């Protein structure tokens, strides 16, 4: 029963590691079968800094998910983020040998492969090459060049770059946990797939995913991703500040933030006080909620302003690039009270909190639809898409084999139909699947 194959998303975060098992239901929605989470100890700002601890956390999350769903997990789709991710715009062109033929897959692959040859800083590798729009013989703003005539094919690309070693370390952790790497995805892209609607991507929207160690940004316009950035701080620095500012231990600071924290100091009355038990026989501490939210406010403003700089870098202030749907906040940090109001106040953009229920089956657990799990849900969806694509490719290969076996005369009729369906799916394979292959090869040879 190949149709109901499961897919597993593994979100290796700074604060938590989540393993989520899902499959497509009959209505094409993702149905979550089980979820496991573990405290993440070996990850700092989205980058693995202790392999042994990370492996333990991954195994714990996987076991929990297996126990809950009764499924055995073998392959996972893993997300990468972290402070080493940066993105750039690049345009490139190819000259076609024969302009009498229509532009096909291979031309686009050639163009994309050319971008992969860009010279990067030492230790960096291209993770994603995302075509923005194409130009054919100087005719601009072409969305889909396949099937058109032309001699010179050029395109603008959004290129996402990351550190090879960090990506390999994640691959190493997955492999050492006894799992196969099915795919690698950029976390802001995964979160975006889980919480944004197609209309928002068309109208123009910025997705801000506030995690524990990093804040990820993905900007969409006209249905295409236009800008990505990873800002190297998130909810954990807020907790740190509360810890320092109130002289309490981290566990208490985290609880304070979650239970009483607000991003808007004006909301708290001066006389609201929380008493925190002292350490081992010491006097309890009294903290006013006003002070607590002042500390949180200062830090959140800093994070939001950095994100806003990135949104402006994309060009939001130009009329043509305006993000009509505004901002969507997701990730664990999006649960902070009054954050939406603060973000609207700083950026002047419409804001909503993004819950990953856009593509989930209707009967999903309340808990799963929390912004906390946006990335994990996105990774599951990504895995399901990948399986779908492999299935289509296999079917296409089967049809081709059959065509070869048939007599020459019969070929044209059969050739026409199937050949038209698979290719569009194929093109998207190039970026991350190649990276996954490379990381796999590297790990296999390194053993």
TrEMBL record:
Q: Where does this one sit in the cell? A: Cell membrane
Segments forming a coiled coil? 48-114
Q: How does it sit in the membrane?
A: Peripheral membrane protein
Is the keyword Cell cycle in the record? yes
Instruction: Name all SHS2 domain ranges.
Output: 7-195
UniProt keyword annotations, A-Z: Cell cycle, Cell division, Cell membrane, Coiled coil, Membrane
What GO cellular component term, any one, is given? Answer: cell division site
Where are the stretches annotated Disordered? 402-426
InterPro entries per the UniProt record, alphabetical? ATPase_NBD, Cell_div_FtsA, FtsA/MreB, SHS2_FtsA
Pfam families reported for this sequence? FtsA (PF14450), SHS2_FTSA (PF02491)
Is Cell membrane one of the keywords?
A: yes
Its Gene Ontology biological processes?
FtsZ-dependent cytokinesis
The record's annotation in SMART domains points to: FtsA (SM00842)
Tell me the function of this protein.
Cell division protein that is involved in the assembly of the Z ring. May serve as a membrane anchor for the Z ring.
Write down the NCBIfam families for this protein, in alphabetical order: ftsA (TIGR01174)
Subunit annotation: Self-interacts. Interacts with FtsZ.
**Entry's family note:** Belongs to the FtsA/MreB family.
PANTHER family xrefs: CELL DIVISION PROTEIN FTSA (PTHR32432:SF4), CELL DIVISION PROTEIN FTSA-RELATED (PTHR32432)
Protein name (Swiss-Prot/TrEMBL): Cell division protein FtsA
């Amino acid at each position: 029963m190949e149709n109901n194959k499961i897919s597993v998303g593994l979100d290796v975060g700074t604060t938590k590691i989540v393993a989520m098992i899902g499959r497509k239901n009959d209505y094409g929605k993702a149905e979550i079968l089980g979820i496991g989470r573990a405290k993440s100890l070996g990850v700092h700002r989205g980058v693995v800094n202790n392999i042994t601890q990370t492996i333990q956390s991954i195994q714990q999350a996987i076991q929990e998910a297996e126990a809950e769903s009764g499924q055995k997990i073998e392959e996972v789709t893993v997300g990468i983020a972290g402070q080493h991710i940066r993105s750039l715009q690049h345009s490139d062109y190819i000259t076609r040998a024969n302009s009498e033929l229509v532009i096909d897959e291979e031309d686009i692959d050639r163009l994309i492969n050319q971008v992969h040859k860009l010279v990067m800083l030492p230790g960096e590798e291209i993770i994603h090459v995302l075509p923005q729009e194409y130009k054919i013989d100087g005719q601009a703003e072409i969305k889909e060049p396949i099937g058109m005539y032309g001699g010179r094919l050029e395109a603008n690309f959004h290129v996402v770059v990351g550190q090879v070693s960090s990506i390999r370390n994640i691959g190493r952790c997955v492999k050492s946990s006894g799992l196969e790497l099915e795919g690698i995805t950029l976390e802001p892209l995964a979160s975006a797939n889980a919480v944004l609607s197609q209309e928002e991507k068309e109208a123009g929207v910025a997705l801000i995913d506030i995690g524990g160690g990093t804040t990820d940004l993905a900007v969409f316009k006209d249905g295409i991703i236009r800008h990505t950035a990873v800002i190297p701080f998130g909810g954990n620095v807020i907790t740190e500040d509360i810890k320092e500012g109130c002289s309490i231990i981290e566990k208490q600071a985290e609880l304070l933030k979650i239970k009483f924290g607000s991003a808007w100091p004006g909301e708290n009355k001066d006389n609201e006080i929380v008493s925190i038990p002292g350490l081992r026989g010491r006097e309890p501490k009294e903290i006013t909620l006003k002070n607590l939210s002042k500390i949180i406010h200062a830090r959140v403003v800093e994070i939001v302003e950095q994100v806003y700089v990135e949104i402006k870098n994309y060009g939001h202030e130009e009329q043509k690039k305006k993000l009509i749907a505004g901002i969507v906040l997701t990730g664990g940090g999006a649960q902070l009270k009054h954050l939406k109001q603060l973000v609207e106040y700083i950026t002047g953009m419409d804001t909503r909190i993004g819950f990953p229920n856009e593509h989930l089956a209707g009967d999903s657990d309340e808990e799963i639809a929390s912004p906390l799990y946006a990335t994990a849900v996105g990774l599951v969806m990504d895995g399901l898409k990948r399986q779908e694509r492999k299935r289509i490719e296999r079917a296409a290969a089967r049809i081709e084999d059959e065509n070869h076996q048939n007599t020459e005369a019969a070929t044209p009729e059969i050739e026409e139909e199937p050949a038209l369906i698979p290719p569009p799916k194929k093109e998207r394979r190039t970026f991350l699947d190649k990276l996954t292959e490379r990381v796999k090869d590297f790990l296999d040879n390194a053993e």
